[in-house]
Amino acid sequence: MRTIIYGVGAIGGTVAAALSLSGQEVIGIARGAQLDAIRADGLLLRTPDEEARARFSCVADPSEIGFRPGDAILLTMKTQDTLPALERLRAAGVSRQPIFCIQNGVTNERLALRRFPNVHGVTVMMPAGFEAPGEVNAFSSPRHGIFDVGRYPSGRDQDDDALAEALNGANIAAFVLPDVMASKYGKLIMNLNNILEAALGPGVDAKRFTAVLQAEAKAAFTAAGIAWHDRGASDPRRANLMQIRPIAGVGRAGNSSAQSLARGTGSIETDYLNGEVTLLSRLHGLPCPANDYFVALSARLVQEKLKPGAVTIDEIEAGLRAAGVPLPA
Predict the structure, then answer these.
(1) Is the pTM of this model over 0.90?
(2) How big is the CA angle at 65 (ends 259 and 127), to the nearest 5 degrees?
């Protein structure tokens, strides 16, 4: 199996480097300085235990790849970039190859299934960072992360098993689940906190805001008849497989949303995280003032080009109270 990794950032870069270093054939699709750096000198993967440089083919566009029937295509970009990527894949001749959505949120699979028949969901639990071209940092040990893999909308097949085998051989713990979307909805509940870290900066205690966001999500999921698995701290696999540890000489820029603001990418994925809760709540006639507030705040952060930590606890509290959100003491 040849693996095509579309989006060689923090997650895609870690996966690409790990697979390549384990002997798998990898082709990356990247852009800008990251593409130039990988072509010139490979991709440096740093972990708490070691660092290694992976060398693999990398292109700027899917049209540069001669796709094969057995290729596995891994989407690792943010959801706001998924539609253009799918169109580029279709233009390049992709048809029945398996497409794995290694992305946060639950929107990507539906977008892909409109265009391609063989779509799979992947829950991503991987504390990784990308700050400089040609380098990625994975802050987990003993495994780089934990992935749940399964066919969309449900089931499992030989493509899931093949990818899981390849990932496990690359030090990424992979589990095949026939109900992978329940896993992804559970991870979505966790990711509602991303905008808090993006706004307040890493390390700020905002648990009482998180509790309100998650309560709205669970009410919306229940109203919609959506099941979810707990993918938080109580997931026993985390203690055994994914212990977050420092990397010597390397700082952490925060979660994926905080990294987007820090790099000034001009977009953030909140519309597809907290925005999923607002969508479901509106469809089922439920209020969701807290998630509404943070979706609007994320848009302001992007429009004003603000960096992580630009918003204070007091400002958020005042905004939530003005929106009618009952905050715990």
Answers:
(1) yes
(2) 25
Taking only Cα atoms into account, the Rg of the chain, rounded to an integer number of angstroms, comes to 19
pLDDT (average), residues 50-56: 97
The identity of residue 6, as a single letter, is Y
Distance CA(137)–CA(216), nearest Å, equals: 33
Which whole-number Å values give the CA distances from 302 to 254, 265, 299, 312, 320, in the listed order?
A: 17, 9, 5, 16, 19
Domain ranges (residues) in the chain = 2-322
Going by C-alpha positions, the residue among 19, 95, 80 that lies closest to residue 271 is 80
Q: Which two tokens stand for residue 163?
A: 């990818």
In the chain the first and final C-alpha atoms are separated, in Å, by 53
Confidence (pLDDT) at 306: 93
Under DSSP, the state recorded for 57 is E
Residues 6+ apart with CB under 8 A from 100: 72, 73, 74, 75, 120, 121, 122, 149, 163
As a CATH number, domain 2-322 is: 3.40.50.720
Q: CB neighbours of 159 closer than 8 A, spacing ≥ 6?
A: 72, 98, 118, 120, 151
Q: What is the pLDDT of residues 103-114, one digit of tens each?
A: 999 999 999 999
Q: At what angle do helices 289-303 and 274-283 cross, to 10 degrees?
A: 140
Helix (H) or strand (E) holding 186: helix 180-191
The confidence score (pLDDT) of residue 87 equals 98
